[in-house]
Amino acid sequence: MRRLDSRRIVVASHNRGKLEEIAALIGPHGFEAKSAAEYGLPEPAETGTTFEENAYIKAFAAASATGLPALSDDSGLEVDALGRQPGVYTADWAEKPDGSGRDFMMAMEKTETMLREAGATTDAQRTGRFVSVLCLAWPDGHAEYFRGEVEGTLVWPPRGHKGHGYDPVFRPLGQPLTFAEMDAAEKNGIAEPLSHRARSFARFAAAMLETAG
User: Contact 78/87 with Cβ under 8 angstroms?
Assistant: First the structure.
């Protein structure tokens, strides 16, 4: 595994919610992190069919453009009753028909409709997981990957206003609250992280940040 010897990295994302979450996770480690948007970089087309492929596309694009190591996250929701959809197309399900942006309420309603059409009415039939893959890429193309998952149940109606994306309909296994009903400290606590992104980051931190120069 390649050692991270720089305290300057690029966060290869234009997603504000994701940026805030990653910034909160790496801040305590003393990193100077700027987003791809701050460098004026365009968002590359995510043409991969796996979380790893899409994370690499974003991270390598930012690394090659800036000359700095770049950290990217690709994440999504897998719903078992829907054949693990939407998966890598999680954000695409929220795209408005007129192309004017994303509407995650619409995406959650689509997911719920499909679950009902599949006859998934009990908790046991409404299982799924959030997946997060972090990719740290260098300008020369080398990359390291860190995967985190959290199992849970899809609930309806949506509950809570603290999260983003599909958080209001996802209740992690063994928890009474949805992600959108949890404070960031509950969701991302490194000692016992619930969030898929916090779990992938914990693996990244253990492998990279504690030995970084």
Answer: yes
- Domains of the chain, with CATH numbers? 8-211 (3.90.950.10)
Tell me which residue has tokens 């805030």: 20
Amino acid present at 91: A
Q: Determine which helix (DSSP H) or strand (DSSP E) holds 207, and give its type and residue range.
A: helix 196-207
32 phi/psi in degrees, rounded to 5: -95, 110
5 labelled catalytic: no
> Which pTM was predicted?
0.84
Angle in degrees, CA 6, 12, 141, rounded to 5: 65
AA letter at 110: K
Scanning 40-188, the segments in alpha helix (DSSP H) are 51-66, 104-117, 184-188
Query: What's residue 186's pLDDT?
Result: 77
> 172: helix, coil or strand?
strand
Quote the pLDDT of residue 95: 96
- pLDDT one-digit tens code per residue, 149-205: 999 999 999 999 998 899 999 999 999 999 999 987 777 664 456 778 778 877 887
Residue 102 DSSP one-character state: B
Q: Which two tokens stand for residue 53?
A: 């492929």
Catalytic residue among 5, 74, 92, 123: 74
Provide the pairing of β-strand 70-79 with 8-11.
parallel
